[in-house]
Amino acid sequence: MWNERYSQTEYAFGKNPNDFLVEVIQQIPKGIVLCLAEGEGRNAVYLAQQGCQVTAVDASPVGLEKAHKLAAERSVKIETIVTDLADFTIQPNSWDAIVSIFCHLPPNLRANIHRQVVSGLRSGGVFVLEAYTPRQLEFKTGGPPNADLMMELTTLRQELDGLEFKQTAEVEREIQEGLFHQGHSAIVQLLAMKP
């Protein structure tokens, strides 16, 4: 599905970074950053433009090829790893920041990845997440068609136990990100830090 979606000339979610990522960029250390389910690279490239050393992980080689193309267009470099997150291990104490933008996974895999996020951050490291909540099913303006793949703050607090939550919200906002995220949306946002 994702290779097919990313095979179009246009960027499925646009070339501009996610709004929430831009909003919190000053709180993200300018160090080594991991981007989960990064697709065509819009957020990874933006982070590289801000001086971060970025590794983008995604299951789609087509998406990550476009990420390298976008990085070259913007005169930055990013590292990429083509793998399914079910097969990826986040190494402990390795990252200054980890970014998860609309990374919708089955509940067990998501909980496992979030446990790895907590161990994978260095002390003072930051985790940034934006995702759709189950209320998004009312709006149908993006995201998976299944509530199990969406997230709520109460669950995220449990899955990310060990982090200090600096900024959290469950809100509705207008999203204009490429062809597939368009319109009024129900989302959860968080920025958390590892003590």
TrEMBL record:
Residues covered by the Methyltransferase domain: 33-125
UniProt-recorded Gene Ontology molecular function terms: methyltransferase activity
Keyword Endoplasmic reticulum: no
Transferase as UniProt keyword: yes
Keywords: Methyltransferase, Transferase
A GO BP entry: methylation
Pfam family, one: Methyltransf_25
PANTHER family xref list: PUTATIVE (AFU_ORTHOLOGUE AFUA_2G14390)-RELATED (PTHR43861:SF3), TRANS-ACONITATE 2-METHYLTRANSFERASE-RELATED (PTHR43861)
Name listed for the protein in its UniProt record: SAM-dependent methyltransferase
Native organism: Brunnivagina elsteri CCALA 953
